[in-house]
Amino acid sequence: MSYIEELQQLLTPKQVSTNETTLEQHGRDEGYHPLSLPDAVVFPASTEDVQKVVAFANERRIPLIPFGLGTSLEGHVIPYQGGISLDLSLMNKVLDVRPQDFLVKVQPGLTRTQLNKELKKHGLFFSVDPGADATLGGMAATNASGTTSVKYGIMRDQVKDLEVVLPDGKVIHTGGMAAKSSSGLHLNGLIVGSEGTLGVITELTLQVYGIPEAIMAGRATFPTVQAAVDAVTMIRTSGISIARMELVDARSIQQVNKINELHYAERPTLFLEFHGNEAGLKQDVAFAQEIVNDFGCEELQFELDTKAQAQLWEVRHNLAYAFIHGSPGRKMMVTDVSVPLTELAGAIQDTRAAIEKEGLDGAVLGHVGDGNYHALFMIDMKDEEEVARAKRLNEHIVHYALARGGTCTGEHGVGVGKAIYQRQEHGAAFEVMKAIKTALDPNGIMNPGKIFID
């Protein structure tokens, strides 16, 4: 009897798939990394199901890869050693909402938009917005962040407790529901960002927030990237209640105009959003206007209407798709790094120059309020020389960031794409990370080949 047949007996035949289309869906993500199929896709419906599958895989030394929606970009969920893709989409319930504690307990297969639809009934929202409608388990696994992190923080800041199935099948909780704790090691921080290499997240208790009384969004254009970044720094220094600060370069605006039939000025542009009460918001916006004007802002437009705000942010969120739709036959390679704010303008300018030097078509954009920026470029994967140029460009961007006290990834995670930079970035601490991996997963079944390679 094959191990797949054993799995079907362990759960139910419907929960174990070897359908070719299903295998292909679980053999890729949204990045440029090559396809690799799992042996089977398993759909657990409960923590108990996960325990059974994990213990089974551990006993037989079968690779096990947790899978959410596959929206990751660095090959996190691609099973390069075969094995079991553990699809958590059936575990998608809101288990408990505690409005007065500003907490919610959910299963890992729930998406952030599904959660916010439920929270809206209670006057609450979940803050982390990575752009893609990712699952909350996947967002925790990669320590996702996104456009709102400048005000509310990243995924790690929102996680109060996780239920985790360890590689031996044991279930642990990594935190609690108290607002703070000084007890024991910070296991939340260990599991968040571990990309499925230490265990399987089966429940999350998350911090949520009250929906702001008033929201205003705006768009400001500048003559240079330096002027835009200087304005960002001054806005942050001023104490203004800013929730989003996104920088999009001139090439990005050009593509947005082309695909969406818009007429934005093709200049470095800040997309801004303010959260607060109506009286305070008016003061904050007026102060922000003074600041951006001091830094040579050429055009400033604010939107109070919720529909207009949604359209504004749709432009920002769909920027990558604007390049994809405008480049048929090509694949998008996207990388992200983070640098100290004082290094941000120089890093973005260096990236733009490097893109042009390599002769590639690409864009630079980012969450400039926290120093995290992205470079995306469209490449012909059949053209080996062009692929080599793109990889050389990616390497240049990472080395530039690391040389200035930054990190090789601010939010996309390590996966396979950034694994080669771990020792360079972390030094001796990388050995500590590997020791933790070995202690928790001695048989190496959990998402092998990701993060912990030499």
Descriptive labels:
454 residues, alpha+beta, Uridine Diphospho-n-acetylenolpyruvylglucosamine Reductase, domain 2, Uridine Diphospho-n-acetylenolpyruvylglucosamine Reductase, domain 3, Alpha-Beta Plaits, 7-stranded antiparallel β-sheet, 5-stranded antiparallel β-sheet, 17 helices, 18 strands, FAD-bd_PCMH
How large, in whole angstroms, is the Cα Rg? 22 Å
Task: State the total count of DSSP E strands.
Answer: 18
How far apart, in Å, are the first and last alpha carbons? Answer: 36 Å
The chain-level mean pLDDT equals 94
Helix amount = 25-40%
CATH architecture of the largest domain: 2-Layer Sandwich
Number of helices: 17
Strand content: 15-25%
Count of discrete domains: 4
Question: Helices and strands: which structural class?
Answer: alpha+beta
Question: Can you describe this structure?
Answer:
This protein has about 450 residues and is α+β, with helices and mostly antiparallel strands. The chain folds into 4 domains: about 5-85, Uridine Diphospho-n-acetylenolpyruvylglucosamine Reductase, domain 2, CATH 3.30.43.10; about 95-210, Uridine Diphospho-n-acetylenolpyruvylglucosamine Reductase, domain 3, CATH 3.30.465.10; about 215-320, Alpha-Beta Plaits, CATH 3.30.70.2190; about 325-410, Alpha-Beta Plaits (2-Layer Sandwich), CATH 3.30.70. It is about 40% helix and about 20% strand. The protein has 17 helices and 18 strands. The chain has helices at about 5-10, 20-25, 45-60, 110-120, 135-140, 150, 155-160, 185-190, 225-240, 250-260, 280-295, 305-315, 320-325, 340-355, 385-405, 420-425, 430-440; strands at about 15, 40, 65, 85, 95-100, 105, 125, 160-165, 170-175, 200-205, 210, 215-220, 240-250, 270-275, 300-305, 330-340, 360-365, 370-380. The strands form 4 sheets. The protein has a 7-stranded antiparallel beta sheet, with helices on both faces. The protein has a 5-stranded antiparallel beta sheet with strand order 5-6-10-8-9. Strand 17 (about 360-365) and strand 18 form a beta hairpin. The longest helix has 20 residues, at about 385-405. The mean pLDDT is about 95.
